[in-house]
Amino acid sequence: MLIPEEDIKKTTMKLTRKALYDLVWAEPLTNISKRLEISGAELGKRCATANIPLPPNGYWSKLTHGKAITKTSLTDDENQVVDLSPYLSPQQIIEKEIRKGSLSVFEVPEVLYAKAPLIIDTKEKHREDMIPWSERKSPYKSKIKEFLDVSVGEKTIDRALCIFSTVINALRFRGHDIKIYKNEYNSLTFAIINEEEIQINLTERKRMKSDATSSRDTEYCGELHFNIYGAWRDNTVYKDTAHTRLEDKVVEIIANLEYRSKKIKEDRIADEERRIRRAEEERIRKEIETKEREERERFEAKRQTELKEYRMMFNMAERLRKANMLRQYIAEYEEYLKTSETLDDEVVKKLEWARKKADWLDPFIDVKDEYLNEDDKDQSLETIKSDSNTRRPSTAETERYSFWSKPYNWFNKKDN
Fold first, then answer.
1. Contacts by 31-36, CB closer than 8 A, 24 or more apart
2. 197 and which of 123, 190, 363, 383 could share a cystine (Cβ 3.0–4.6 Å)?
């Protein structure tokens, strides 16, 4: 059963499984795909996704020659809707939107009517460039201010300018414009779309001459290329082919430029959002690092304060221990002197001197010493040691005895 094309269009590219099943078994996929404006391979995928059986290989040949054929029946829900709308890329959507309107402005004229100053100047600049350097006036300086970025041969300059002029008119028809950046020798052309600048130019492919003797012996071959440049080598080239002409691709060129401008803007916004996000993450990271550093510094300052106070407490406890140790020594010394009946005025003075030193060392008693200061309280006093193998003379031995070091010897020395 052949479904009329008008009925297919009325369905807005949506058919039930039963209708699509009847369609694919009524005629080959290649015929159906042309009417549905969808590729045969894509139509086969849609049928497979919807579990719709397709005719096997050789089915149509057997049907033509009247051979026996087997038709696979359809199972499951026959009324389920299958969407056959073609999957359009963003650029194709723009192309479709452009083609809904008038296309006269997108049509390239066969003859160049150079009325725009930019087109006239470009053609004049091309004529100047065709003059060999040896025949130019010295010093050579072109009077042309602005010209399009066109690099073609003498035979195709009019055709190239017709195409470029149509592209410019189409851009302006769509609300866009172009801009020329020129230096002393070169001129770059940019399409301005939604405030985005996209570099474009038109070139002609070169080929080796038939009698070429080096790689530099080339000539223009008539194949025009319209080049659209993007970042990171994201370039697009529209060109003449064996079956198509560049003149028929103006709509595609405009659609590509408009999609590129949108993509550039989206990418720039995304880059800016990433930059802001990275800056915010960096700010938060530094803020956390600052807080952690300040916390470590506060902890270290507190630790140093605690350690200083602890050391002070320990020093005071050590002073008290030493002071009490001195008092115990003095008390036992005094008891020894009493039992040995050697307690005279000189000894009493020494004991009183010792008690004052113990009070001076005691952290709970505020006593000043005439000769010693606070640092002296914490000094480690080591006992004077001598070499046990060295024999000193008797006079030196008597000098070693003192009131505090060897009381017994000191008193015996005193009695003698």
1. 35/5, 35/8, 36/8, 36/84, 36/86
2. 190
- The CA–CA distances, whole Å, from 361 to 12, 111, 333 equal 107, 117, 19
Produce one character per residue of 90-119: b if its CB has 16 or more CB atoms within 10 Å, e if not. ebeebbeebeeeeeeebebeeebebeeebb
Q: Is 68 helix (H, G, I), strand (E, B) or coil?
A: coil
- CB atoms near residue 392 (< 10 Å): 12
Q: Report the range out of 79-93, 320-334, 339-353, 401-415 with the highest average pLDDT.
A: 320-334
Comparing C-alpha atoms, which of 193, 102, 205, 204 is closest to residue 159? 204
C-alpha 55/C-alpha 70 separation (Å) is 9
Residue 194 pLDDT exceeds 80: yes
Q: Which amino acid, 163?
A: I
Q: How many CB atoms lie within 10 A of CB 354?
A: 18
* CA atoms of 239 and 245, how far apart (whole Å): 7
> Is the confidence at residue 5, as pLDDT, over 50?
no
Residue type at 6? E
CA dihedral 360, 363, 365, 368 (to 10 degrees): 40
Over range 273-302, report the average pLDDT: 97
CA pair distance 169, 166, nearest whole angstrom: 5
Q: Residue length, the chain?
A: 416
Helices (H), 1-89: 5-10, 17-24, 29-36, 40-49, 59-64
pTM, two decimals, is 0.62
Q: Where are the alpha helices (DSSP H) in 205-249?
A: none
CB of 121 within 8 A of CB of 147?
yes
CA 12 – CA 1 distance, rounded (Å): 20
Residue 141: the pLDDT is: 59
Residue type, 165: S
Looking at residue 41, its amino acid is A
Cα–Cα distance, 34 to 23 (Å, whole number): 13
Q: Which residue is associated with the tokens 């970025």? A: 149
Cα–Cα nearest to 160, from 201, 202, 127, 129: 202
